[in-house]
Specification:
The protein is mainly alpha-helical. The chain has one domain: Hypothetical Protein Ta1238, Chain: A. The protein contains 5 helices and 4 strands. It has helices at about 30-50, 55-75, 95-110, 125-150, 155-175; strands at about 15-20, 25, 115-120, 180-185. The strands form 2 sheets. The chain has a two-stranded antiparallel sheet with strand order 1-2. A two-stranded antiparallel sheet has the order 3-4. A hairpin with a 5-residue loop joins strand 1 (about 15-20) and strand 2 (about 25). Helix 3 runs parallel beside helix 5 (about 155-175). The longest helix has 25 residues, at about 125-150.
Length: about 190
């Protein structure tokens, strides 16, 4: 008995367009694919960090990766279809932002935030986290462009990405312990 397997290619994007959720199509270099593409990259960088991490940190990273799929779904939806999104599943909520803030607050109790610039690369996990943080910042910048263009109905996306980069920064510092390298250039 043979089953036909789905192929990973559709050929629909050969014309330089890509599909959004609920059927809309846009150019591949449109702001929406730029934004959710950066979110996808951040999720992949977090995957490298999670592969290096263990225990509690790996679980926190996995939670963030899962939530990034929510962010990506929202960014991959044309504004006219945002009413079809489900809060917390395909749309970012204020509760998601609050949860990230609570995680940051808990980390600040455990790790003193550095007052100097930090040079990434003390260990592989922290370096992957710092890479993910930088990519989240890029996703945030593109989301700001979407907002300015009137194509980001839910500003919780911006708040979430802003807080998330802070959380990932603190996770990297926790991973390094007191062993982070300070870059005192001033």
């Amino acid at each position: 008995m043979s089953s036909r397997r789905a192929r990973p290619y559709t050929k629909k994007g050969d014309d330089g367009t890509t599909g959004l959720l609920f059927g809309s199509r846009v150019e591949k270099d449109d702001l929406a694919p730029e934004a959710y593409g950066a979110v996808d990259e951040a999720c992949a960088a977090l995957g490298v960090a999670r592969a290096e991490a263990g225990g509690e940190l790996a679980e926190v990273i996995k939670r963030i990766q899962t939530e990034l799929f929510v962010v990506g779904a929202e960014l991959a939806t044309a504004p006219e279809n945002h009413g079809k999104l489900v809060p917390g599943k395909t749309s970012v909520t204020s509760e998601m932002v609050t949860a990230v803030e609570e995680m940051i607050d808990a980390l600040v109790e455990r790790v003193e935030p550095p007052q100097e610039f930090v040079l990434p690369g003390q260990n592989r996990c922290a370096a992957a986290l710092d890479l993910a943080r930088a990519i989240v910042r890029r996703a945030e910048r593109v989301a700001v462009s979407l907002k300015r263009a009137g194509r980001l109905p839910n500003e919780e996306v911006l708040r979430y990405l802003n807080r998330l980069s802070d959380l990932i920064y603190m996770l990297a510092r926790m991973q390094e312990g007191e062993d982070y390298e300070r870059l005192a250039i001033f």
